[in-house]
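JOB MANIFEST
job_type = single_chain_structure
chain_count = 1
residues = 688
[input]
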Amino acid sequence: MTMPSEQDTRIVILDIDEKSLGEVGRWPWSRNLMAELTEKLFDRYGVALLGFDVVLAERDPSSGIDVLDGLARNELKGNSEFEKTYSRLRPALDFDARFAASLKGRPVVLGYYFNVEESAVRVNALPEPVLPRGTFAGRNAAFPQWAGYTGNLPAYVRNAAGAGHINSAPDFDGVSRRVPLIVEFDGQYYEALSLAMMRAWLARRTGEIPRVAPGFPEERPNDLEWLDVGGVTIPVDENAAVLIPFRGRKRSFPYFSLVDVLRDRVPPERLKGRIALVGTTAPALQDLRATPVDGVYPGVEIHANLLAGILDNEVKRRPWYTAGAEAVLLAIGGVVLAVLIPRLSALWATFVAAAGMALIVAFNIAAWNIGGLVLPLASSLVIAAAIYTMNMAYGYFIESRSKRRLAGRFGEYVPPELVDRMARDPERYTMEPKSAELTILFSDVRGFTRISESLDPDALREYINEYLTEMSGIIRDRYRGTLDKYIGDAIMAFWGAPVDDPQHARNAVLAALEMQRQCGPLNARLAARGWPPLAIGVGVNSGTVRVGDMGSRVRRAYTAMGDPVNVASRLEGRTKTYGVGILVGEATRARVKDVVFREIDRIRVKGKDEAITIYEPQEKDSGDLPLWEQALRAYRAQEWDAAEAVLLGLQRANPGCGLYGAYLKKVQDKRRQPPPPGWDGVTVFDEK
């Protein structure tokens, strides 16, 4: 919450990334190349300080020096010509010596690591300890025990300005939140890479590397609480560790591919005067850590964050009195909430608990931001949540079990008012399947594939959420329908269950009209965000279906099944064919008396022998109804010219109505291919 989340350009990371490994070759690289890199960083790029978050533990015989030394000792021993030439060439072939020479006199800090495994080895050289043996004798300082180490070659350690360990201290969950600034090995104390680099940085101003002194408070003189480094105070815990002051997610510092530095592809001004850290993000080199801010985080950036935090005095403190502060917070918060919550209603209890937890969090954040203090947060929140949960559980199990059971069952499907009504007589309402007369509605967005292809995934998610929210509100809240399911961009809903609705057909038709009406304002909002408009088709049908909790052992849902459901779905699919927004089955039309309908066609859908008459509900009587009925009679009487004349007139009067164009096309098709003798005027659809 409080991370700066902006790049700190004082520190740059020179990344041994996949690109570098691809161009130069596998790691470790030739020390000759590393010497060239070191010299170039200081002489061409002008870095102020260089740290290595890698261990240079192996000799580099890649020049062939070992083979030539063997020849000089054996086969060619005494060969004056060979010995003279080899003695002249050998210094140039000793890449380890060349790299060591490149470190001398320059502010370079090396990295090494300790190992806790029983089989750990002790390889190469450690730097001088930063604190002498016995510094913490008799003190309350608990240092982890290490079994071995892997250091750098002795020549490197002698010539470098310093060296620091690169170990972190992962918590029990494997997440790196802390780094031990001081570790103990064989009774002596060694510093971390970030602390060694801090000391080298301060040495640029004073001319000598400052000493490290442990700090003990007067109130508790045996407890380690800070380190003093040349006048800079760094708070630590009892393990001499600090919380890593993360600036943000990974790449909170500028990254440069190391091969680009080697090949002079980085402008010098990007590195001049900067602190440079050489590390890796290549997965094969295994320096990626889990952290609180990122699941996969480069280890080198942990050191960069810690160094930046020390430079900015942003390392948080956890002083000795933290335990007392935690006890006080728990006592005050627990007593207040335990007294208040049982005396309040569920709504007020929720408000008080939320307010209490918000105050705890606010106090904690204030202590963190203003005082730089690390105070416990989880325990206080757990106490508040536990008191609230126990009281709510009592209310759930004892006082309102039936109501909450119904809310859990039907809350997703029906509006809260109906849930309240059901709660008054819970025995009457169950999810067991039953036969009931319902009205079913299906809606779908036309051309949704084209719309989805024009939007990126995030915009598409917001687009469909906006549409579904608007339409669901009409169905569920305004007309008290049961929201069955979303099928992509399609919606299925029904009226008449779980609560009986004598006006189920009327409410479904009115909801369909309202859905079409609200497409206008919805499209205006979509257009304001640069998104394409939408049009929907709605199919409505009534009949006796099976409704209840149905499904498999894996997943169940409260839904409706039956032939009227299938017809409603197919009517929605036919809206585009007829150029209308809504199609209603004849069973629904017969149940609604106060809405104007116009007959659209008689159709026979696939899988059904009987034809059904379909209708379109009208917002109001437009006056076109007599002419439309005349055109429909002429069409069914196969009087194509008369039908066409009336339809053309209707189309000129209402150019935006797709129905007239659809029937003009049907007339043209019938002229070209007349229907068979005895045609009953029914349109047959062979596909669903």
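[summary]
The mean pLDDT is 87.
The CA atoms of residues 113 and 375 lie 31 Å apart.
exit_status = 0
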